[in-house]
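Q: What structure does this chain adopt?
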Amino acid sequence: MSRAPDPDTTRIKTRALELACLSWGTGPLVVMIHGFPDTPRTWDLIGPRVAAEGFRVVAPYTRGIAPSEIPADGDYRNDTLGQDVLDLIEALGEESAIVVGHDFGAAAAYTAAGVGPERVSRLVTLAIPHPATLKPSLGGLWRARHFLSHKLPGAARRFAARDFAQMRTLYERWSPGFAWPEAEFEHAKNAYSAPGCTDAAMGYYRCLRFSASPGLRTRIAVPTLILGGLSDGVASAADFEASRSRFTGPIEVRMLPGGHFLHREHPEPCLEVLLPFLKGQASQPA
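A:
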């Protein structure tokens, strides 16, 4: 899996904290938010291609993920993560932006679009259906069993054990059948091994609740594209389709090759759908 040249790195001070950000290109702003266990390097195969189409892509290390600032109050609630997205757009000097989110970043992106539609011109989410539509089930609880284990005492130590062996375990569970090269985890291991970072990442789970946060209860009016992986080990096609009920604006749901990390497993099919949407063009069904 080839990598693009290293992006520019800057530090952006928002209202709440300082975020380290990667960036590519110039033009209308596209903010790309990573998930767990990940960093903005997850966009290495996507960000440069989007930038080449005339966009300014900015991808922050989310709060607590090195080298971004660790919040002193330990607040990693979803509504706070959504506000971070809106604050970042403001700090970058823009009135609005296209927001793209994966995993935890998708949940934050849904929140940002719901509570700050004036700042989110278009929304793209990957790998996570709208959380307010997810129904408890035995199968779902089993697939999300890490939600509980990461809340327990000692979670950070266990996650970092054996050179972050759990990181590979999660990638392989969520994207079954894909042969992940060891180099895929290099950037995430470097970030999560920084002092306090792994515990901060577990803070995302400690702050999770099994009911939708207030910011996720607002229906979304901005044009939205939801991308799901056909072999995702976390959510099914039916889960993604159910997300439609949370939208009052245009909504497109597309299931593409790959699992939970579809944008890294199969970047070309992802880009074929993503780029026309970013440009406001209609995409053709696969």
